[in-house]
Amino acid sequence: MNEATFRDHVNRLKEAVRGQDVAARIGLHGRGNRFFCPVCQPGGGKTPDLDVFDQGFKCYKCGKTGDIIDLAVMAGGMSKADAIGYIEQLAGVKRPTGREKSRGHSSDQPKIGRPGASHATVFHDKTEKPADPPSPPASDLYDAFLSTVCQPIMGTSGAEYLAARGIDAETADRVGVRFCPDPSGLWKLADREVVKTAGLASLYIFQVNGLPFLVFPYIRQGRPVFIKTRCLLTKDEADQLKVPRFLNTSAVIPCLWNHDAIADADQVLICEGEIDALTAIQAGQAAVGVPGWAAFKDEWTRDFRGKDVILVMDADDAGRKGTLDIVRRFQRAGLPAPRQMKLAEGMDLNDFYLAHKGTI
Per residue in 186-225, is it b (16+ CB within 10 Å) or e — as a string? Predict the structure, then answer.
């Protein structure tokens, strides 16, 4: 297509999608229209400083600003071409062909995400296939990292951390949770560009600060497709050291934590975060974890077809907003609304489990 047609197409894309929808789909966390900036607040913080509005964004902490395509580039780790492809899929707007002088249509769409990272898909109908696991080097490197740099959690300070929350190391080990005392061995597994492309370079922050951490691999179709990590510091300790408590491999989350458990379960709990999902598993339930309700994707609903689904979000304003959002996604997919487990104000599932002496 010529330059004028393409420019017109890009402007139409910017008008077709709200910035808040882009931020939520990519997996940014926050409150209302404010999100934690992936540039200056990658580990969160007290106040989300990234203001996302209909046509763009502005961070009041680091000053980053731009339109919704720039937002996809910044938050999703995409090239500009891939970001345009992402917005095309999100908006359901096809690209004009090169032969058409007016707004035409093309079935060609660029792949989403950076090389080696998982790709997000946008749910359009009930026959759409789930996203494939990332191709090498990402999954292969994740496998190598989990098997050689990480170790089983039993007998580690990570096991003590979970024990304080009523979770046995054996349970955590069974669902793939690992412990990493020192990630420096990561750099021996591949060259730096491959490590960076796979999204594991962020772990250098924990390495230079001497911080061991828990590792939560996200497994899809038997392969690791995303990795989330959690150091053992309290929020106050992390704030004092000015380090994040959580790091992950990319902003695009391809599946729920423990996603493959859905297939063989009759009843499934959807929990807010990995620790709450682990808590449910400890109590004998089949459970998956949402890494922040805004990360939930429409296409995941199809995997719950025919299941008894119980939604357990934190009992706070954000949790209630997330509950409403996920319920609506199920209803749009033609599925029954999940049942909801009510918690006392301010509680999460782990709080409830500890308060009721190991029962749910």
Answer: bbebbeeebbebbbbbbbbbbbeeebbbbbbbbbbeebbb
Q: Provide Rg for the chain, Cα atoms.
A: 20
pLDDT reading at 145 higher than 70: yes
The three-state (H, E, C) secondary structure of 36-76, written as one string: CCCCCCCCCCCCCCEEEECCEEEECCCCCEEEHHHHHHHHH
Task: Give tens-digit pLDDT for 42-51.
Answer: 777 778 888 8
d(CA 76, CA 33): 18
What is the distance between the alpha carbons of residues 317 and 248, in angstroms, rounded to a whole number? 25
**Using omega within 30 degrees of 0 as the cis cutoff, is the peptide bond preceding 291 cis?**
no
Using DSSP, state whether 221 is helix, strand or coil. coil
Contacts of 356 (CB under 8 A, 6+ apart): none
Specify the pTM.
0.65
Q: Which residue bears the tokens 């979770």?
A: 167
CA 103 to chain centre: 34
pLDDT the model gives residue 251: 56
Residue 155: pLDDT above 90? yes
Give pLDDT tens digits for 167-185.
999 999 999 999 999 999 9
Contact 343, 312 (CB under 8 A): yes
Residue 261 is classified by DSSP as G
Please give the backbone phi and psi of residue 287, each rounded to the nearest 5 degrees, phi first. Answer: -150, 150
CA angle 353, 342, 352 (to 5 degrees): 15
Give the pair of three-digit tokens for residue 289: 């974890």
Torsion angle, alpha carbons of 149, 153, 154, 159, to 10: 140
Specify which residues 340 forms β-bridges with: 311
Over range 190-209, report the average pLDDT. 89
Q: What CA–CA distances, in Å, run from 121 to 88, 147, 296, 334?
A: 11, 29, 12, 19
Tell me what pLDDT residue 253 has.
Answer: 83
Per residue in 58-96, pLDDT (tens digit) is 887 788 888 888 988 888 878 888 888 888 877 777 777
pLDDT tens-place string over residues 283-310: 999 999 998 777 889 999 999 999 999 9
Contact predicate 28/50, CB 8 Å: yes
